[in-house]
Amino acid sequence: TQVPANSVSTRLQVIFSPSPVIGEHEGNRSRFRPVESDRIFYRPKEHNMRIGILTSGGDAPGMNAAIRTVVVTGQSEGHEVVGIPNGYIGLLEGKSRSLDMTDVQGISGFGGTILGTARSDKFREADGYKLALQRLGELKLDGLIVVGGNGSLTGAHQLATAGICQVIGVP
Question: What is the DSSP string of 45-111?
Answer without folding.
Answer: -SS--EEEEEE-SS--TTHHHHHHHHHHHHHHTT-EEEEETTHHHHHHHT--EEE-HHHHTT-TTS-
